[in-house]
Amino acid sequence: MINLEVLKRTRCNKIYVALSGGIDSCVLLHSLIQHKQSEDISAEISALNNIEAIYVNHQLSENAMQWQQFCQKLCEHYQIPCHIKTVNAKPVRQQSPEAAARDARYQAFTEIVSSNDALLTAHHQNDQAETLLLRLCRGSGVKGLSSMAELNHYHGITIVRPMLVVSKEQIINYANKHELQWVNDESNNQIHYRRNFIRHKIVPVLEQVWPTINKTLCRVSEQQREAAQLLTELAKEDINNCLSDVSFPLINEPILSVEKLLVLSDGRIKNLIQNWLVNNKFPSLTASLYAQLLIKLRERQQENICNNSLELLVWQGPKTKAYENYKFALYLYRESLFCFVINQSSEFLGFLNQSYQFDLRKQDSLKVANGTIQLINFEQLNKLQVNQNNNFRLSSISQLDNVIIYYKTKVDKLGLLDKKQKLTLKKYFQENAIPVYIREYLPFVFSDGQLIQVGNISLKAVNSHVNMPLNENEKYLFFEY
After folding, report:
1. CA 74 – CA 54 distance, rounded (Å)
2. How far is CA 355 from the centre of its chain?
3. Cβ neighbours of residue 149 under 8 Å, at least 6 residues apart?
4. What is the C-alpha to C-alpha distance for residues 443 and 357, in angstroms, rounded to an integer?
């Protein structure tokens, strides 16, 4: 009933079963218990001797407590632990009920399952086929149409789906043969949920013409997965070939050279950008946004515009609570393409308007709005690989007792810089290719009312236009972001 080979590859210490009380997860748990009782199999897959279950109470049905009690009794019967997690699965603005329940459920799993364990879910062949149809209707691309993997990782936990080649009919037959009991979730019959509509209204019609449609759709989904893998490998090669040599403060992710990028076809550019964003934990673009981006990039190529800056795109991430205060922007600066996170939360904006007192006699570090200011010595600088060939140009603060830190919003509000200082800084930023979008988020360090450092740039370096030599007997302020 289950694929034991994928469990052998997992090499986990403990198995957690995502148990809802429905027929699928009850069959999965029963099958695992049966294999556990086989000395040969349990010896080969030691995790079978450590099976536990997790029931997530979404609080969406009046029967949820009855299902919880059913799962607890079932686990008592099998003599295994049953973890209960009660979650708030109500959707946030513009989030679907299914997505909200899924996000809450997997968040609960991550709170229980460790990195050395595996979470087993009862997804099966019919689920795989329904997912493909659902994503086709949404207009998903190759990656979106890819099959669910038997083994993957989510937020540090291993997820195993050992029943993906098993049909719903086989599951029902197994349950009846072994006289299993299970609960029925009434929401599974409510066709206003799109997956249920596909399951009850679309698939039965397709099966009348193509009886093995579920198996066929799973094969198509697997082919899409293989195609997605090839595109990922191509994108990796293209990204490496299109990397820029420049670096910017506050940008830890790889920066792309637009000159190298525009040598590629539109399809390869889109594939590269998609993988570049995903690799760096940025949300993907929609098809219309990709089209806008390509138009703007090609326009710049035709007009041969260089040595200036442009905000190419601004977009929002997934409609989840974790992303609701963030926007993401793609910037083009002097033929370098980079992505920047814009935190719009009132809390963060408040941090940018604060002043930060740093007592250098009593403190080694100070947390500021978007990082930490550290008091470090020459040896520590070497460990951080700070040298004269990058944007870190520090001057000694060994003679100072304290400093005060502001961000540009507060500096402008308080009028701390005169016109000449502003022009000098602006010229320095331009000459050293520090984008205007980043300058707003660099800490300005003052001592006795005088600006001494911006980010990791000493004001002495700004005024003298030379790199300041580092002295092994001195101490420095370093901004870590």
Report:
1. 12
2. 32
3. 161, 225
4. 12
Q: How far apart are CA 204 and CA 133, in angstroms?
A: 13
Q: Give CA–CA dist 291/294, Å, rounded.
A: 5
Contact (CB, 8 A) for 285 and 277? yes
The total of other beta-carbon atoms located within 10 Å of residue 40's CB is: 8
Distance CA 243, CA 195 (A): 41
pLDDT in tens, the chain (481 residues): 899 999 989 889 999 999 999 999 999 999 999 999 988 888 889 999 999 999 999 998 999 999 999 999 999 999 999 999 999 888 876 678 888 888 899 999 999 999 999 999 999 999 999 999 999 998 888 999 998 999 999 888 999 999 999 999 999 999 999 999 999 999 888 998 899 999 999 999 999 999 999 999 999 999 999 999 999 999 999 999 999 988 888 888 999 999 999 999 999 999 999 999 999 989 989 889 999 999 988 887 776 655 567 888 999 877 777 778 899 999 988 889 999 999 999 999 999 999 999 999 899 999 999 999 998 887 777 777 544 345 456 767 878 889 999 999 899 888 988 888 888 888 888 877 788 888 889 999 999 888 988 988 887 756 655 555 667 778 888 898 8
184: three-class secondary structure by DSSP: coil
Classify strands 309-316 and 326-333 as parallel, antiparallel or unpaired. antiparallel
* CB of 477 closer than 8 Å to CB of 374: yes
CA pair distance 35, 38, nearest whole angstrom: 5
User: What are the phi and psi torsion angles at 479 (to 5°)?
Assistant: -95, 110
Radius of gyration of the chain (CA): 28
Q: What stretch of H or E contains 57?
A: strand 51-57
Would you state the CATH architecture of domain 4-226?
Answer: 3-Layer(aba) Sandwich (3.40)
Cα–Cα distance measured from residue 323 to residue 214, given in angstroms and rounded to the nearest whole number: 35
∠67-73-74 over CA atoms, to 5°? 85
Q: How far, in Å, CA of 378 to CA of 232, rounded? A: 42
- Cα(165)–Cα(215) distance, rounded to whole angstroms? 8
Token readout for 378 is 């020459």
Distance CA 428, CA 459 (A): 10
Q: Identify the sign of the CA torsion 94, 98, 103, 108.
A: positive
- Sequence ranges of the domains in the chain: 4-226, 243-343, 348-480
Task: Report the alpha-carbon distance of residue 357 to residue 112 in Å, rounded.
Answer: 40
Q: Which residues have CB under 8 Å from 211's CB, separation 6+?
A: none
